[in-house]
Amino acid sequence: MTVNVATDETASTVRAITAIYARLLGAALALAPLCLVAYVNIYQDPQLRFDNTLFHAIATAVATLGGVFVTFVTWQCYRSSHEPLLRWVALGLLGFLTIFPLQGAFAGFAHGNMPLGLLYGPAARLVMATFLFLGLLSYGREPDAASQRAAPRAWLSWIALFIAIDVTVAGIAFSPIAALPAASLTMDGGALVLSGVTVAVMLSRRIRSPLMVIFGIAVTSFAISSLAFILAAPWSHMWWLANAIFAGGLLVMSYAIVQAFLTTRSFATATSQADLMTRLAEETKRAKDALLELKRTNLKLEQISATDPLTGCGNRHQFVERVEIEIARAERDNPPFSILSLDIDHFKAVNDTYGRHVGDEILRGLAQICREVLRPYDYVARVDGEKFMILLPETSLNEACDVGERLRWVVANNTFKTGNGPLTGITISVGATEFARDGETLDTLLRTADERLNRAKDRGRDCVIAA
């Protein structure tokens, strides 16, 4: 016991340390781009430029194509789970795709009109940061109502807003304020603040589900990229690094969305692999328990269907099945078997005189006598009212008559204990038949046994008839 306790304590300690280490790894992964930004900011040559508008346009087109697919997957997840967070993430990606591609489209104008070629990026980042912040605020809320998620006008309204932002950015690009860096700095500064606040809210709410941790790493990348854009001059190494960091954040976000689609299609209910394995083990155990319970229930049902509920003996259906099995065995191996058909004499008078409850007690008493007198492999069944039938394997007719006579004598000399006190004078009549000697079919054997039972009653009851 001491060893087990020590082992459990060690496992718990290792688990706690591992959880802390995992959080540190997540933080290191999220902040790693910040080290690159610091390095480039300190050691870059301000004169170095990579002024390639064609490469920028191609990179923008590739990012747009990937973004279209991820946006569609996000929308599919939302249609399945109706999670508010996914609605805002889908809108943020949609807004980004409506605005950002224009930066690549107008990249060729960057030398003649720098704002037209470069302002759409900050605007797209600000829009996306805004919607991701709104999405985080909605995390954990109830799924959207049907009226809200089924209204296409709302989505069209957002698209119209994004197009209006495109027009506004174009207006700014051709206005006097475009000459000032304030427009770009304001938008990237807003994106930086919103992304930073999003991460802070996540940390304060202690949201640590696996996909939300990836969400937080992506948003941290967006914040760092906005900081790099603020520090960068167009086409500088810092500027390209900022684009790369933002693209990395999009890849991380895409990974989280794809994982959600492949699992629960929800950020709130997705779990880690360890949690899934734990749940799988729990569900497997629950399924096994349910299967065992089902087997026990089936056995009980089989027992109930094969048993007379009053006496605990077999019923007519089971008796017939047993006789058919014995017939097949006799035809194959030729062992004899016999059947007894017995009935309580004047049972109606007993019920009328003492009541049905006394009659039931006598039936149970007779069943108990049969179990005590018969061999373990003999089979007794209550087939109708006060009528019983007994299957005697490997028993000739003469031996069956001896069994019937023994039963008759025990019953006649037995004192039945009833609710009305001890009762004596109960007798039975018995008819006996043997396979092959009296018939080779089930119907013939049962009919012959019943005929001989009736003959026993005609002869005065309390006797055994075998011919």
**Global outline:** rod-shaped
Question: What proportion strand?
Answer: 5-15%
Count of structural domains:
2
What CATH calls the topology of the largest domain is Rhopdopsin 7-helix transmembrane proteins
The major pleated sheet works out as:
5 strands, mixed
- Please identify, by name, the CATH architecture of the largest domain: Up-down Bundle
Point out poorly predicted stretches. Answer: none
Radius of gyration: 44 Å
- Residue-averaged pLDDT: 86
Topology:
Blueprint: H1 2-43, H2 53-81, H3 84-99, H4 101-105, H5 114-118, H6 120-137, H7 146-149, H8 152-173, H9 182-205, H10 210-231, H11 237-262, H12 273-306, H13 316-333, E1 337-344, H14 347-354, H15 356-373, E2 379-384, E3 387-393, H16 397-412, E4 416-418, E5 421-423, E6 428-434, H17 442-458, E7 464-465
Parallel strand pairs: 6-7
Antiparallel strand pairs: 1-3, 1-6, 2-3, 4-5
Helix pairs in contact: 1-10, 1-11, 2-3, 2-11, 3-6, 3-8, 6-9, 9-10, 10-11, 14-15, 15-16
Description:
- With 467 residues, this protein is α+β, with helices and mostly antiparallel strands.
- It folds into two domains: 19-271, Rhopdopsin 7-helix transmembrane proteins (Up-down Bundle); 311-465, 2-Layer Sandwich (Alpha-Beta Plaits), CATH 3.30.70.270.
- Helix content is 69%, strand content 8%.
- The strands form two sheets. Strands 2-3-1-6-7 form a five-stranded mixed sheet, sandwiched between helices. It has a two-stranded antiparallel ribbon with strand order 4-5.
- A hairpin with a 2-residue loop joins β4 (416-418) and β5 (421-423).
- The longest helix has 42 residues, at 2-43.
- The chain is rod-shaped.
- The model has no long low-confidence stretch (mean pLDDT 86).
